[in-house]
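Reviewers of the previous submission asked for a worked example of the structure-prediction workflow described in the proposal, so we include one complete record here. The input consisted solely of the amino acid sequence. No template or homolog information was supplied to the procedure at any stage.
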Amino acid sequence: MLRPWIGLWADRNRAILAITDRGSILIVVYTAFSAAVVNGIWHQLPSTMLGKLVLFDAVLLAVALATVKLGSHLFAIPRRDEVAMVFCGSQKSVVTGVPMAHLLFAGPSAAIIVLPIMVYHLLQLLVGAWLARRYAAGFAAPIPSSPIGPHLAGR
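From that input alone, the workflow returned the following structure tokens.
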């Protein structure tokens, strides 16, 4: 909505906006992990429970990714749109979850409640980086020409 008024300014200041955006996310994530360490969250959970949590979050992420990818294939979504759907459909962030959890649950209990979100966030970053490289490699390949001619292929 604000693009007509601040679009040119945002385009000129893309670098500083990217630093600000990433910096604010880094601060929220760092705060969440720091609070978990200060509250002794890693010592409160047995390693078997932490392993189960990682496994559960991995399955949850895999189901989200598979559902979005299958849906994009079922509806014959173009590959570029599929990439957007895969990342937007599976990416839920600690940046939104942590502040909400701290509003809803006060004190040290918030750290244990936020732990599944933190683990999921770490997994989505790792899997997302791997997927991004795979998608980028797939787009680097030449796009086959359209049987109706190159001048109509984009329509």
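The chain has one domain: 9-140. We consider this example representative of the routine output the project will generate in years two and three.
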